[in-house]
Amino acid sequence: MQLACASCGKPLEATNRGRPRRYCSRACQARAYRARRAEAPADAPAGGGDAPEGRSDAPPQLTVERIVRAGIAVADAEGLDALSMRRVATDLGMSTMALYRHVASKDELVALMVEAAMTGIPLPDSPPRDWRHGLERAARRDWDLYHRHPWILSKVMVTTRAYFSPALAADSESTFTSFDGLGLEPADAFRYMFMFTAYVQGVALTYVSDVEAERQARLTAKRGEEEPATGAGGARSPLFEPGAYPRLGPAMRAGADPWDLDALFVSGLAGVLDGIAADLARRGIES
């Protein structure tokens, strides 16, 4: 489609970098700016990328929500390393400075992205049938979250350093309701929660690492470089050569050829919950 100057209608040449041009010259750009200022309300913000209201040909109004959605789209597709205020501004067709009028920094943007991504998967609206059901549905919700947004794992990992996120706190509070009615001491509830979360996030780390490895492989192929001669799995790996590793090799061929991480996650989760059940029984707690 042939692009045309938004002011005089003169055809524009396509650009290979940055956002598409809208004007053929600085004179046309200035003329359009003066026209927008004349039509805008007296209290409208000057410049910076926010569109005056009431103009059907103007781009959508820049808001925090639009910025956050654009940031999530970048991180989902390319990881957090690709995220920057400049990149988000380019994808939105705005100036970088326009974004800073709504979001103070990249760190603030990532924090807002975490909140939006977590609240995008609603918490249960009914109490669990029992503690096991509560933990199972919490695990499924988190597993879904990490698949939708692999980048979020590094921002919600269990850590000894205090970090407050309203959405993360609400998620944990919901999971803790799984233990309601058991009469657990808070320290015991925390111990079980730590065991459960460490398992879920540990397996999710394997998934996220695979996602990043595949992304890097695509980038390598795009650059025309050869992939490494050895890998973690497949026919090229010495692990799959008969007799090379008499214990490790058969185990890998039986359990990871091919990998089914979803099935391994479910079976491993059952083992963790069985362990909690055994500990509750040992302590005489009816569950």
Automatic annotation (TrEMBL):
GO molecular function list: DNA-binding transcription factor activity; transcription cis-regulatory region binding
GO biological process: negative regulation of DNA-templated transcription
Keywords assigned by UniProt, alphabetized: DNA-binding, Transcription, Transcription regulation
HTH tetR-type domain: residues covered: 61-121
Annotated segments matching region Disordered: 35-59, 219-240
Keyword Transcription: yes
InterPro entries (UniProt xref): Homeodomain-like_sf, HTH-type_TetR-like_transc_reg, HTH_TetR, Repressor_TetR_C, Tet_transcr_reg_TetR-rel_C_sf
DNA-binding region: 84-103
PANTHER family on file: HTH-TYPE TRANSCRIPTIONAL REGULATOR RUTR, TRANSCRIPTIONAL REGULATORY PROTEIN
Protein name: TetR/AcrR family transcriptional regulator
